[in-house]
Design a protein that fits this description.
With 222 residues, the chain is an alpha/beta fold. The protein has helices spanning 3-10, 18-24, 28-38, 90-104, 166-175, 185-196, 199-221; strands spanning 46-55, 63-71, 76-82, 117-123, 134-137, 140-141, 146-147, 152-158. The protein has 7 helices and 8 strands. It has a 6-stranded mixed β-sheet, with helices on both faces. Strands 6-7 form a two-stranded antiparallel ribbon. The chain is globular.
Amino acid sequence: MDYLSYYQKLSQLRLFDDDFMSLVLDDIDCVELILRIILDDQDIRISRVLSQKEVKNIKGKSIRADIIAEGIDGTYYNIEVQRENSGGIARRARYNSSMVDMSVLEPGNQYSQLPKVHTIFIMERDIFHQGLPLYHCQRMIEEMDEPLNDGSYIIYVNGSRSDDTRLGRLMHDFHCQEWREMEYPELARRVRYYKEKEGREKMCEIWERIKRDGFEQGIEYG
């Protein structure tokens, strides 16, 4: 595939497309914007962002997280963007949350030092089919009808809602192919960079690497 073909494909990409999303959201301003809207907390501040972070499990299944961000207060955020509902099943959210836990608690630390972890799945479709913009999940003490307060939180975002709310406008931006149509300048700036400026060549190089790696894996597996 030549660069012209890549450019044509690049023009059609949205934030729901994995490789493109990982590049655009590898940015503190963008991640702060998304978290402040989804969690309805304007005080969230991020100290670092890791895109496509591999969290290894030497005895079991490892994960490659779309985005892991650390807040200045020590809270961790795992953002996963999924086009298909099959990619956001509850047990995957549970596993991702546990893997982040495993990666951030240092040897010798007390369990009380385990930080808060928010696992956020931004779904292109409404995974629970209830028409709600957000679905908040946490462990409960059933007999008391109270949260366990273990510091672990899972949130599903219904990306099919693009109404005139802050969250709706954010989901509108996730569906946009054209940066000029986006509502939030933080996201539009990054999308423009990778679609129209020098970042475009970087995106094409990534596609070439993905194609090359896939070809080599095909030879390896026969």
